[in-house]
Write a structure and sequence with these properties.
Hypothetical Protein Yqey, Chain: A, domain1, 154 residues, 2 domains, Arc Repressor Mutant, subunit A, globular, 76% helix
């Protein structure tokens, strides 16, 4: 069963269980996937379907939006809204692949720093260019950037 099918199946289960929070989160996620599907069909034709990687990218982007919202709400002192976003993010991350730990990211970054010959912060772009394809969908870009900044010699 593909990710899109899993989300639709879980949506039906949430409807039957009358689980409002889960239902709202999954409906929004399904809507985001359908938006991408419509955009793809506009480009490639009526029979085009989103690939599993494209669906995964939509879920990742939606999770990132939730993280950004949590950060904004916390800065604005809106803890009740941040808590709601955290609960939604927890549901969404269940559909993402297991995220890399800081140590795993650090190892990838260390190899990239060595491979690129980075000597100062001016070389951060070259390191990020090597790291991001390896961690795509497996780590948040902000976290990767922080680790890269720690690993590059000043």
């Amino acid at each position: 069963m593909g990710l899109k099918d899993q989300i639709e199946s879980d949506l039906k289960v949430a409807m039957k269980a009358r689980d409002r929070e889960t239902l709202d989160a999954l409906r929004m996620l399904k809507s985001k996937i359908q938006e991408q599907q419509v955009a793809l069909r506009g480009k490639e034709g009526k029979e085009s379907e989103l690939s599993e990687e494209a669906v995964q990218a939509v879920v990742s982007a939606y999770a990132k939006q939730r993280r950004d919202s949590i950060e904004s709400y916390e800065k604005g002192g809106r803890e009740e809204l941040a808590a709601k976003e955290r609960a939604e993010l927890k549901l969404i991350t269940a559909y993402l692949p297991k995220q890399l730990t800081d140590d795993e990211i650090g190892a990838i970054v260390a190899r990239a720093v060595a491979d690129s010959g980075a000597e100062s912060m001016k070389d951060i772009g070259a390191v990020m260019k090597l790291v991001m394809p390896q961690v795509k969908g497996l780590a948040d870009g902000k976290k990767v950037n922080e680790i890269v900044r720690q690993k590059i010699p000043n």
